[in-house]
What does this fold into?
Amino acid sequence: MTLKKIVGKLHLWLGLSSGIVVFILGITGCIYAFIEEIEPLVYKHRLYVEPQSTPKKPMSEIWQAAQNAIGTENKLMGASVPNTPHETCSFTIYKAKENSDAVWYWQDIELYRTVYVNPYTAEVVTNEDKTFEFFEFVVNLHWSLLLTNEIGQPIVGVATLIFVISLISGLILWWPKNKAASKQRFWFKWKNTTRWKRKNYDLHNITGFYVFLIALIFGLTGLVWTFDWFDESVQWIANGGVSHEHDQPMKSDTTKYASAKTSLDQLFVQVQNEYPKAKRYFVSKPADSSGVINVFISNSRFDYCSNQYDQYTGKLLKSETFADENNGHKLRSMNYDIHTGGIAGLPGKILAFIGSLICASLPVTGFYIWWGRHKKQKRST
It folds into this structure.
């Protein structure tokens, strides 16, 4: 067999083995590409409030309102606090079942809710069960095929790896032998007499060529989340062949200040005064007596500051910005925006939507190419 025939066989069987998963990832990717634009329209009633002339309630009061809505038996650990006059504060809690032998992702969930609170009145706007919320359902279908991470993630990861190999083998098959052959590889030249088999072949071949780079980015950024070895390799390359150890977590000083805890309200006012232009603050309470208060200050996608404060004194223990990160960590932080096209703004998301739709079509058109040839071989025998 010639090299191209071997590559053709490889492309065929890899495509057939991963086709269903790639189709699902492509369709769900289309939906999720514009989640930041769709959610404010669909969930306007829970995300926004009327601005008021009165000042916002203290953070402790807003937090307590959300805690009361959840119940005191499950402690809220984090809050998303917008620095705008017209948005609600949100508190999300996720609790997995212990010793679960679940197969589907929802079977592994004991509690998963988001509480939206009006910051002016400390009244609960919505107490939402996130388990089967539409976009949560879509992202879990994309992430693990609605299976638990232990089952679904390896399946998605292997299918994504196969997809990347299929893209490379497909480019080899697409590559024209000469100038005459290249005339039909770059654009559709259909006539009224062109049969649907030829049209289907061109749809697979030509759109596959134009989406190659976008699809490769989808695949490689997807592998970063799936396989630790791939993630670490990408960061190692970005850092110029240097491995960076993870920093040790900071701890609060429990020996001197255990009886004089800093109030959350004081600390949050302090953070607001220090970072008045931030778009949003993400506040996390300490997990235990030696833990720290984490505050993530978001100015824009790649302009943020991650601070850790002693829970007893309010002293700033550590502060890191995006600019402080090494190249590997920067690239890792950008992975989501690269994957969704958000790194290029709205044009990037539109491109990601179209690319994802084409990726979903490739297994379908590829299957029909194989099915047509398979039926033809059966008739000839």
Summary: The chain has a mean pLDDT of 92. The chain has 14 helices and eight strands. Strands lie at 78-82, 89-96, 109-117, 124-129, 280-284, 292-300, 303-310, 316-321.
